[in-house]
Please model this.
Amino acid sequence: MFDWVSLEYYVQLHYILLLLLVLFTFIHSQSQPIDSDQNFRYMKVMGSMYLIFLLLYMGTRPISGIFIDMLTYNTRFERYAHGAQITTSNDILFQFFTLISSRIMSARVYFLICEALYIIPLVFVCKKWFKDYWFYGFLFLISSYAFWSFGTNGIRNGIAGSIFLLGMSREKKVWQILIILLAISVHRTMMLPAAAFLLANFYNNPKFLINIWILCIPLSLVAGGSFVSFFGTLGFDDRTAYLTEENIYNVKFASTGFRWDFLLYSATAVFAGWFYIFKRNYNDKIYFWLFNTYILSNAFWILVIRAQFSNRFAYLSWFMISLVILYPLLKQFILTRQHKKIGLLLILYYSFTFLMNYIIVVV
Model:
């Protein structure tokens, strides 16, 4: 559908258009009360329009190596289309989905459905938790640093993360369990946030977990290589090979070293949770689940931050980061001029995404 957009500028156009939406939303937040009729109309119209555009723009993108792992997914799809059978038990649900899809649809339709499985659950999560203010939650989610890359490159991981959030947002335990198991069947690395979520259901001590998170920083600085080697040889899943294999394809965010920039990015959610819980006495069971799950998952990533392809493990917490930062602000009035500050927070949040994915890349 958007084949007329040059591949050279396809990704850049996404970030420019999203920048315009963020700026327009910021201006709107400074001039309208959050509960005004004008703001409700704005959220409804802009949310629906951009949701449809995003589904089509990401879902009908050309099949190209510019989206890195998209070619790998396409190769697997074509192999299944020519009669190959599933030969691995890893991510079995996604493998089965790809096999069935290859027999009844084209690759272009397949990738469109993959994008719908990535984006639509996020809408359901936001509507469940934020009701009429779902647009703000959705905008924060799509403005996050990793949103585009895990919708077009790490596709299974992205879909699994969205399904995991959908499970977390359900009220009944049975649905939480079933949907989270579904997420694990799409991508096994969801076992990490699933284990963290399970612990969060039985142990709620944010202060202690924040201290654990902080402790992981010097541990990683002093013995990061040992943690990388240890987790890389556990063998519980083939994804741990990312910790030790070389970056032969020169993939972005694959370089080794202690990434202070990404640590600071992760720390924004830790600070937000600390501020809401301990400075504003915010008390919400779901938020405690969300915050504790995030901080435990992110602590694991800090331990292996030096590894090749540590982005695969960073995403196991980063798919929650937008909601950790925003959730209380859409549930309760806890700040003066809160709507204006949500707009300002959106600008600051997207600034990092735009800097890392557009300015640095283009310049």
About this structure: Residues 246-255 have pLDDT under 50 and may be disordered. Residues 7-362 form one domain. The chain is about 70% helix and 0% strand. The CA atoms of residues 249 and 362 lie 20 Å apart.
